[in-house]
Each structure stands twice: as structure tokens, then as C-alpha cells.
TrEMBL record:
It comes from the Bacteria. The chain crosses the membrane at residues 48-70. It comes from Tsukamurella pseudospumae. This is Uncharacterized protein. Keywords: Membrane, Transmembrane, Transmembrane helix.
């Protein structure tokens, strides 16, 4: 009976004793993990606010400009996760992210995998 997967990080899956990747399987004890955030966070004026400001300029002139104060945050990019096995094998995966919460989720999953690697 195979062990259940405790955490998945992109293409990397971890059980209590193994790291399973598309490139092969190796023991989780002694595995080294690195994680790099390659996401970009931007703040822009949404399209709907620009349209309402232009249309409202003909009706309420000055007050329609307040729509241009509306902002929305956007996150784009990926988080790169690499695992290095005790035998010298390694695997790297990129996890796409679309919010700051997704970035923190990937970092949390890697920390959990690190705890599995040291035997906690």
C-alpha cells in the first residue's frame, strides 16, 4: 500500500519518507529546499473606473474624477521551488501565482516539506 501524499508543491509531492518528482523518487530525509519568489505586484486604476470617469464627466463633471482614485492590486508571476536530494539529484518546478495569498501558500508548503525533511 503506497504512502499518502502529505504535501504537493507544483510537480513535487512529498510523503512521510519520499520526495516524488517527474524526474524520480528519492528519500525526504536530508533533502534541501529553496524557494524564490518571481512574482510582481502592481496597483492600477481599473478599466471600469476610467470609463465611469469619462461618462460621468458629461453629467456631474468634477465629482466623476473621484472614480480615478479607485485602485486594484494585481499579482502575476511564479514561485520557483527546488529540491536537492541527499544523493545529489535535484528537481525544480515553477508554481504560477495570481495573489499574495498564493505566494504565501507556496512558502508555507515548502516550510512544511522542510519540516518533513528534518524528521519533525
Amino acid at each position: 500500500m503506497p504512502e499518502p501524499v502529505l504535501v504537493s508543491i507544483g510537480d513535487i509531492h512529498c510523503t512521510r519518507t519520499q520526495v516524488i518528482t517527474p524526474a524520480g523518487t528519492f528519500p525526504i530525509t536530508g533533502a534541501q529546499w529553496t524557494v524564490t519568489d518571481h512574482s510582481v505586484h502592481t496597483r492600477t486604476t481599473p478599466t471600469w473606473a476610467i470609463v465611469l470617469a469619462i461618462v460621468g464627466a458629461f453629467v456631474v463633471c468634477l465629482f466623476s474624477l473621484f472614480f480615478l482614485l479607485a485602485k486594484e492590486d494585481q499579482t502575476q508571476g511564479f514561485v520557483q521551488v527546488s529540491v536537492f536530494g541527499p544523493e545529489g539529484r535535484s528537481f525544480t518546478t515553477s508554481v504560477p501565482v495570481y495573489s499574495p495569498f498564493a505566494v504565501q501558500d507556496v512558502f508555507g508548503r515548502v516550510n512544511y516539506a522542510r519540516n518533513l525533511s528534518i524528521g519533525m
